[in-house]
Every structure is written in C-alpha cells, then in structure tokens.
C-alpha cells in the first residue's frame, strides 16, 4: 500500500514540501531533482510521482509528465494532492473540463481545502458554469469569512448568474463583517462602492441607488463613473432637468461621446433615431456645437439623421473644416453615409462644387481670404475615393495622378492610388504604387504595414517579410519570430492566404492556426483576472472583462482565418479521397540539422524555464506545416473550428455553409440538414441553399450504408423544405445574379457534372450579370473554371471577357 505524505519519514516530508515551494517559485528543474531524490527511496510513493509528473510537464516533457501523474494516481487513486496536481497540469494545457473533473476528485478526499476550492471556483467562472461557481464560493466564504476576496468572488458569481439581488446581499454582508476601509485601499473602496450602487440600480431600486450614490461621493476616486451613473439614474427616474445638467457636465468632460449626447437628447425627450425629431435634435446639437466648437463628433453627428438642405448644410460645414485642417480621413469618416444613395450623391456634388471654387478662386464661396494651398489637394483626394466607391476607376486614377503631379510628396495620395488599383484588379500595380509611396517616408509605420499587406496579396511572401521586420526593434535577435510574439494577426492572415494561393496548404494552415492561437490566447488571458479582480475589488471591470471575453471569437479576422483553415482541411480531405493527396512543400533548410545558431535564424528564441533556469532554444520542427497536411484525419480539426464558429457567429451564413460541407463529408446527415435549415433561417433566398439541398439529396440516394428509415425521414424533411428544386432552376430564376451562377457551378462540380458547371462559368463575364460582376466574383469564377478542367482556349476566352469588365485588371 502506498504511503501518504504524512507517512513519509520526516526528512522526505520536508523534501516533498520544499518541492511544492519550488513549483510555486517556478524552479521546475530543481523541483524535479528533489522529486527524484524522494523516489529513489520510495519509488511507489504516488503523490511524489504526481508531483514529478507536474514538473516534467513544465519542462517540455508533457507526455512523460502525464504518464507519471497517472501512474501516481494508479498507486493512490484517493490522493487529494495527486488529483490537485493533475488538475493543475490540465489547467496549464487549457484542458479546463478535465481540470474541473480533477478538482472534483481532489475534493472527495479533502472537501475543505481552500486552495482547491478557490481554483475550482475560478475554473467554473472561466467555463461560464456560474451556478456551480456560486456553490463553491459559498463554501469558501463559510470556511474563511474574514477574507474579502472570497466575498467579492461570490458576488461576481451571483452577478454573472443573473442574481443581482443576491450579489447585493453578499456585498452588504461583507460590509458588516469587514473592519472598515483598512481592508482595501482608497481606490478599491471606491470601486466596491460604485459596484454596490450599480447593483442597486440593476435590482430596479433606482431611488435608493441615487441616494446611495450621493452618500458615497466623498469616498469615490473615479469621478467620471460616478457622474455617469448619476446622470443615468436621474434620467431613468424622469428628473429630466437635473439629468440634463448632469449630462451637460459629462459632455464638458468629453464632447466626443455619443453616449453622453444621446443621454442629453433623451433629457429633452428626443431620440436621434426618430425621423420626426430630426429638426429638434439638430437644434440641440447646434447649441452643443457652439459650446464645444472643437468637437469633431458633434460636427459629424447631424449627417447621420439630417436629410435634404439640412444635410447639405451640415456636410458643407464638416467638409470645409476638414479641408482647411488637412484631414486625410474625411472620406473614411463619412463612408458609412454612402449606404444612403441620396446622401452619397449629395456628398459628391458638394465636393465637386468645393473643388471648382478652390480651382477658380482658391476660396470657398463664403471665404473672405484664400484657403490653404493644400485644401484643393485634400478635396481632390476625397473625390478620388468617391469615384472609387462607385467603381469609376479610370476617373479616379486620372484625378489622383493629376493630384500627385501637383503634390508628389504626399504619402496619402499613393496609398489611395494603390487602393484604387487593387479594386480595379491590378494587384501588381497596387503593390508597386504602395511601395513607391513607402519610399517617400521610410519612418511611416502605417504605410510600411500597408505595403507588406499588398506584397502578400501579390504573393511576395519573402519580400513582405523583409519589409515587415524593418520596424522590429534593432536589439531583437530573432526578428522573424518577433512577428509571432507581437501577435500581428493581420500579417498571419494575409500570409496564410498568400501561401494558399501559391498552393502551399501546409504553410497556409500553419499561418491560419498561428492567428487562431492568438485569439485563443486573448480568450484564455482572462483567467488571471478571476483571482486578480476579486483581490482588488475591481468587480465592475471584472464583469466587463467576462462579457468582452464572450465576444472574442466574433472578431471578423478570426472568422476570416477560421473559415480559410476549414476550407484548407476540406481540400486536403477531398484530395486524399480522390487518390491525389496533397504533399507538404519542404524548404531547403527542412532537411538540414539545426544548430543552436540555426535555431535563432529560423525565428526561434531562448525562453526561461523558471527562476535562473536556462532553456535551450526551441526549434520549429515543422516549418512547412507537414503535420497539418499529413494528418490521418483532416475533418476532425475542421469540425472543431466549425463548432467554434457556430458558438460565436451562428448568425452568419458562411458558418452554416461550412458546417454543411464538413458534416456532409462525415456523413452526419441530420447535422447537414440542421445546417441547411439554419442557413434558410438566416436567408431563405441564399444562392447556396438549393445547390446544398440537392447535394444532400444526392448523398442520401447514394449512401447505401445509411439506415433506410432515417433516410426516408430526412428526405421527407428535405422535400418539405425545398420541394423538387434543382440547381438549374435556381440559377435560371436569377439570371441577373452571378452569385447564383457561382453557387450553381459549385454544386454541379460537387455532383460531378463538370460540363454543366463549365458552361455556367464561361458566361460569368456576360453583360447579363450586370453590376454583380465584381472582381472577387470573377476571380472565383476563374478558379472554378480551372477546377472544372477547362481547356486553355476556354480559360483565355474567360480572361478576355473579364478584362472587358475590369479593363485595368491584371489578375485574369
């Protein structure tokens, strides 16, 4: 039978406890030596084996560490220490569900262990099991009611569990047991009081919240937060005059805040979203503009709700101010207004008129003196972007070239010209123009970044890397690796797409996963705040962090890389099924043994393993992404990404299209139908809907292994939702839409009808598709045409047609 810690001899007990202290101080190698020292005398001591495994896992011997921990648990399966250790290692490896199970096992042997309970509570908060977090933290409060962070943690758990009344009760109980402000510093006391007042508001007792807010004013350090809550409460209580004064005070602090302006308007019974309030809202905002003439936001705000002459007047005021100040971002600031065709046209007419006035007299019509020489340049720059927005690339290029001849050293002109060339399909010209502009100001980080992005879009991976590292600090020995360290997700994303276009799926997946890992890190970084925030009583900020962390994977860039990675996995699977598996493309250095100096050249660096413990340089053992390409199962990682997208962005059509593709290949037909129905709920007229339904029906017909009763049930549901719709009828019913033609061609290719798909794709440049013939759509059509086995003559014919649509394009 295994010895417990207390049954070890006194000397070994001391060694065991010193090993645990070494773990806390991150001295893993020393701790490993002590563990081995104990195990020489007591090789079957389960708890020491578990601790040794923990140290092994922290010195990059993870698999051996897990095996050692499990061996220790086999010897002593009831050891609380061993299960706790196992939980710590699982938590370190982000296996939160497994860690929770380990903590639950640990508590069976030591149900009142405060350390285990505290860590378990943090894990429950992290995985959003708030009801369980409440239970655990209630135990902690009972075990040690004099420790304030336990009270704070319990309040936060109740709050996130939707029980604001119980959270308020917990804070009140803590105040009765606390020994005054000495428990926390002045800032912490202020935060706690503001949080308590917020809880009172959330419970619906607005008058009490306002009264408590007045009482705590002398003890508050975050005055702005106090004023915000006061204004909000006064407005909710209907005390509009007092609320208006409160919001006026806030606007004086920050006239750029939309929240303050909206609150001030609400005090006057106005809503910026109500069309009937437009004249009154404008009058109020004009009054604020007179009080705060430096506010850019107040100057812009009328454009969002005014129409007709009022809009023109507000737009003219904003435009003249921006042109006199030389604000390059004028178009970017009003671009959202172009969604309203009337406003877009009005802005174009306004800027054309101002440009004419400046060219003819160097003054605006109401000016008493000449405007700055640069005003006409900025006006032309706006018009260039205006023409680009409407697809008039030749006119935009003509005007920007004219402006460059007059102001050849203005970097912004080259940035906009490059953007126009990109939109027109001249990727190489866009890259060259952006790089030429970069040469005008080599200290400008922004244009350096834009140049790198354009180089990658031109598939110049190595040149982009050389340009990127120009802004990595000189004392950094591994500049390439630093790109990963600084979490440049845009670079990883663009580089991944470049590799994908070059046919290097292994490296593409490597880049996509690096970007995905960054977002995963963002999400996991909240873990440290579960302890820190309650210790500092920063509960308002803690709640904000938890709510923000729930939105991390909704970021557009995460969706971009996740979808691209899924598509890569699908391609790998399909190629493998077709008997022509993709092979990783090795680099010249892949086959050479790496020295320590070589590791540095490959973008690796030296990491600290612990206090005063040097760690050998890690080596990228898979620079070509071969592990992704050569994996036995490509659908499993694709499915994991699909599930993450479904959890984060289930309101996006692309999520369910990819879910359909993955589940169909896995023959999970009920999930395929679920994805179809989800897509239909989002957009019942989506171009991909009918082709996907036809493919599902075909898959059911050809899969003899699928149970007949379930097949019949699925086909019945399919017929009920889509009838006897066909791909041909779907395309024919939308003869003016290139999107429907592309979706139809994809469906036909998947069904093996390459001839029919090719017929559709060859017509992509046809005038019948009108304005739907976008650059992205034509590029996709060209790629699908190649995939369909089109002849050289057919591809050349397509390229000629595409060039007629986009004469400046060089990518066909």
Automatic annotation (TrEMBL):
Entry-linked SUPFAM superfamilies: TPR-like
UniProt repeat feature TPR, residue ranges: 80-113, 114-147
SMART domains, A to Z: TPR (SM00028)
Region (Disordered): 580-607
GO CC list: cytoplasm
Protein name, entry field: N-terminal acetyltransferase A, auxiliary subunit
Entry coiled-coil feature ranges: none
Source organism of the structure: Coemansia biformis
Keywords noted in UniProt: Repeat, TPR repeat
């Amino acid at each position: 039978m295994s010895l417990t810690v207390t049954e070890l001899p006194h000397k070994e007990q001391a060694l065991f406890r010193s090993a645990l202290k070494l773990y806390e101080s991150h001295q893993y190698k020393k701790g490993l030596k002590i563990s081995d020292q104990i195990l020489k005398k007591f090789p079957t001591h389960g708890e020491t084996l578990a601790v040794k495994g923990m140290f092994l896992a922290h010195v990059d011997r993870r698999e051996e560490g897990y095996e050692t921990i499990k061996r220790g648990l086999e010897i002593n399966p009831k050891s609380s220490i061993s299960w706790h250790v196992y939980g710590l290692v699982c938590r370190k490896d982000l296996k939160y569900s497994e860690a929770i199970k380990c903590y639950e096992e640990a508590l069976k042997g030591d149900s009142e262990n405060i350390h285990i309970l505290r860590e378990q509570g943090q894990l429950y908060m992290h995985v959003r099991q708030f009801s369980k977090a409440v239970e655990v933290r209630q135990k902690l409060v009972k075990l040690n009611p004099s420790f304030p962070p336990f009270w704070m943690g319990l309040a936060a758990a109740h709050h996130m569990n939707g029980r604001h009344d119980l959270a308020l009760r917990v804070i009140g109980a803590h105040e009765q047991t606390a020994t005054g402000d000495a428990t926390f510093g002045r800032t912490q006391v202020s935060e706690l009081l503001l949080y308590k007042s917020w809880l009172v508001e959330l419970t619906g007792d607005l008058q009490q919240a306002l009264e408590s807010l007045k009482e705590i004013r002398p003890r508050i350090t975050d005055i702005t937060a106090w004023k915000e809550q006061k204004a909000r409460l006064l407005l909710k209580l209907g005390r509009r005059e007092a609320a208006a004064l409160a919001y006026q005070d806030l606007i004086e602090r920050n006239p750029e805040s939309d929240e303050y302006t909206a609150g001030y308007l609400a005090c006057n019974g106005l809503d910026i979203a109500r069309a009937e309030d437009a004249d009154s809202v404008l009058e109020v905002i004009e009054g604020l503009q007179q009080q705060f003439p430096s506010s850019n936001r107040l100057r812009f705000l009328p454009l969002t709700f005014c129409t007709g002459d009022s809009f023109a007047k507000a737009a003219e005021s904003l435009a003249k101010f921006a042109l006199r100040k030389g604000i390059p971002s004028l178009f970017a600031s009003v671009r959202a207004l172009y969604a309203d065709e009337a406003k877009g046209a009005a802005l174009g007419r306004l800027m054309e008129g101002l440009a004419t006035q400046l060219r003819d007299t160097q003054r605006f019509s109401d000016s008493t003196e000449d405007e700055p020489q640069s005003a006409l340049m900025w006006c032309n720059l706006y018009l260039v972007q205006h023409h680009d927005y409407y697809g008039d690339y030749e006119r935009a290029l003509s005007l920007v070239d004219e402006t460059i001849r007059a102001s050849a050293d203005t970097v912004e002109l080259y940035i906009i010209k490059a953007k126009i060339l990109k939109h027109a399909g001249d990727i190489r010209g866009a890259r060259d123009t952006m790089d030429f502009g970069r040469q005008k100001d080599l200290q400008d980080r922004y244009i350096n970044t834009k140049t790198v992005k354009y180089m990658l879009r031109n598939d110049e991976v190595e040149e982009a890397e050389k340009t990127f590292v120009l802004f990595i600090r000189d004392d950094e020995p591994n500049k390439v690796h630093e790109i990963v360290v600084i979490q440049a997700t845009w670079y990883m994303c663009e580089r991944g797409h470049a590799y994908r276009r070059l046919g290097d799926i292994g490296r593409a997946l490597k880049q996509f996963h690096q970007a995905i890992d960054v977002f995963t890190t963002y999400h996991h970084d909240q873990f440290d705040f579960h302890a820190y925030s309650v210790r500092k009583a920063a509960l308002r900020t803690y709640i904000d962090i938890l709510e923000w962390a729930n939105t991390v994977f909704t970021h557009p860039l995460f969706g971009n890389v996740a979808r691209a990675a899924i598509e890569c996995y699908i391609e790998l699977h399909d190629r493998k099924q077709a008997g022509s598996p993709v092979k990783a493309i090795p680099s010249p250095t892949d086959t050479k043994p790496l020295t320590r100096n070589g590791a540095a050249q490959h973008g690796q660096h030296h990491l600290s393993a612990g206090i005063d413990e040097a760690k050998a340089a890690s080596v990228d053992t898979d620079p070509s992404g071969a592990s992704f390409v050569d994996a036995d199962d490509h659908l499993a990682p694709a499915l994991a990404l699909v599930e993450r997208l479904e959890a984060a962005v289930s309101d996006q059509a692309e999520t369910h299209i990819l879910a359909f593709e993955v589940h169909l290949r896995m023959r999970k037909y009920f999930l395929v139908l679920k994805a179809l129905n989800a897509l239909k709920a989002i957009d019942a007229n989506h171009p991909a809907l009918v082709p996907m339904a036809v493919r599902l029906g075909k898959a059911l017909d050809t899969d003899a292994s699928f149970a007949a009763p379930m097949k019949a049930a699925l086909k019945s549901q399919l017929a009920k939702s889509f009838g006897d719709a066909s791909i041909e009828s779907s395309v024919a019913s939308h003869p003016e839409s290139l999107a429907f033609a592309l979706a139809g061609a994809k469906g036909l290719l998947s069904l093996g009808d390459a001839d029919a798909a090719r017929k559709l794709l060859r017509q992509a440049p046809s005038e019948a598709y009108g304005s739907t013939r976008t650059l992205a759509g034509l590029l996709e059509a060209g790629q699908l045409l190649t995939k369909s086995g089109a002849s050289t003559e057919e591809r050349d014919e397509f390229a000629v047609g595409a060039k007629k649509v986009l004469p400046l394009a060089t990518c066909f």
